[in-house]
Structures are given as structure tokens and as C-alpha cells.
Write a structure and sequence with these properties.
single chain, 231 residues, three-stranded antiparallel beta sheet, alpha/beta, 2 domains, TIM Barrel, four-stranded parallel beta sheet
Length: 231
């Protein structure tokens, strides 16, 4: 969530609708009050965590508080069954992250994608050691030698290129390894949620979830029956 709510006003003035990913009920209510699409991120998510609640718990509470808001679920959605559970909890749609890491369009480093697809949820940890570039934030990543021993020396462990410019990669850096990265990939920030589907293209990911998102979800809300279809 932005610290200054004027960002919502600026987006509206530009004719844009705001989409905000968040991890608390309070932030969700605040964002919805500005007409934003609310993305409820659970701690099952890979990457930068925004709260302490599990996905469906957060979605359910937000749906009760925000019956008319556009609510999207994020975190640990690695297949249609998880998507169905999130929608049953009250989400209008889903947001995927880790599922797209293994798609070739993501340009993630090959070693990164192989480690993601070869792991399961027990191989992930929540840690704050990858703080260079993103201080004060917990992340869910694959367990590495760095998460096991955060007392290692703070030195450079690789190189990468971002928008045509070369950079050194520090140990404890929050940047994800891409095809332009070299060095000790296994020690870098390997973001992974608690679920992941092994696919080969972004189109495959979308196709796998199409049936779920086209299926109406019927629920009882405040004494009335509602039917929602994921967008």
C-alpha cells in the first residue's frame, strides 16, 4: 500500500483504475475505499510478503467487509483446485506468480526454474535475509545456503544486466536471477510460493485455469444468493 493516498487521486485523474496488492484487512478496506481492485495476498505467496494471514482467511474476511469490491486472491495458487478454493472463499479472480516463473516468457534463469519445479512447499522458507534492495520485508523463497546461514560475509556473488546496464549481485540481494545473471544462482533470492504448476509457456498457464475462471461461483452472502464469475 502507498503511504500517501494521493496516488489514488493521481491515478483517477489520469483515467486509470488502481490495482493494489496487500496483506491486511485494514489495507484492503483502505484501498477499496478509493475504488481500487483489491489483491489479497496470503503468506503462501512467493516473493515479498505483505501480511501474516493465509490467503483464504484474508479473502473471506475481506469479502465480508467489502461485499461489492473487486477482490482477487494471490498466494500459493499452483493449480485449478487451489484457484477453486480461493474463489469459494470469496475471490472474484486470482493472481498468479510462481506459476509463471517456469514459463519461458518469464526469462528467469534456467537454474532458478529447475529448482522451482523440482521443489515442494516444504522447501520454502519465510526470511528477511534478502534485504539488499528491499529492506524491512519478509520474503518466501526456496531454502538456500544463505537462508541457512545469514552470518556469511556480505560480498558479491554474481553479475547481471538490467535494461542494458551491468550490475554486481550482492549476497543478500533481493533481485531475482534472470537469463542475464551469472554466478552463484543457488545462493540468490529464489522466490517460490507454496504451490507451482510445471508448464512450458504462459499460454499453458492461462489455459489451465480458464475452466475455473469461467465457472460461476454461487455463494450465500448476507442472506442473498450471489453468483460471481472470475474475470
Amino acid at each position: 500500500m502507498p503511504e500517501d493516498d494521493t496516488v489514488f487521486e493521481r491515478a483517477a485523474a489520469a483515467g486509470r483504475r488502481t490495482v493494489v496488492q496487500l496483506g491486511t484487512v485494514e489495507d484492503g478496506v483502505r484501498a477499496a475505499g478509493h475504488g481500487a481492485v483489491v489483491v489479497a495476498q496470503g503468506i503462501e505467496a512467493g516473493g515479498h510478503l505483505l501480511g501474516t494471514s493465509r490467503r483464504d482467511e484474508l479473502v473471506s474476511v475481506l469479502r465480508d467487509r467489502l461485499p461489492d469490491a473487486c477482490l482477487v486472491a494471490a498466494g500459493g495458487i499452483g493449480g485449478p483446485a487451489e484457484a477453486e478454493r480461493a474463489m469459494a472463499a470469496g475471490a472474484d479472480g486470482i493472481l498468479l506468480g510462481t506459476a509463471f516463473v517456469v514459463a519461458h516468457e518469464s526469462r528467469a534463469h534456467g537454474r532458478f526454474t529447475s529448482l522451482v519445479t523440482g521443489a515442494d512447499e516444504s522447501d520454502t522458507v519465510i526470511t528477511d535475509v534478502y534485504e539488499v534492495g528491499w529492506p524491512g520485508r519478509r520474503h518466501r523463497v526456496l531454502a538456500t545456503a544463505v537462508t541457512a546461514d545469514p552470518g556469511q560475509p556480505e560480498k558479491f556473488i554474481g553479475r547481471t544486466v538490467v535494461e542494458g546496464k551491468p550490475y554486481l549481485v550482492p549476497r543478500f540481494g533481493a533481485a531475482v536471477p534472470t537469463q542475464a545473471t551469472s554466478g552463484r544462482i543457488e545462493e540468490m533470492a529464489l522466490y517460490r510460493g507454496q504451490s507451482c504448476t510445471a508448464v512450458t509457456s504462459a499460454a499453458d498457464v492461462v489455459a489451465a485455469y480458464a475452466g475455473v475462471l469461467r465457472s460461476p461461483q454461487t455463494t450465500e452472502t448476507q442472506g442473498r444468493t450471489e453468483t460471481r464469475v472470475g474475470q
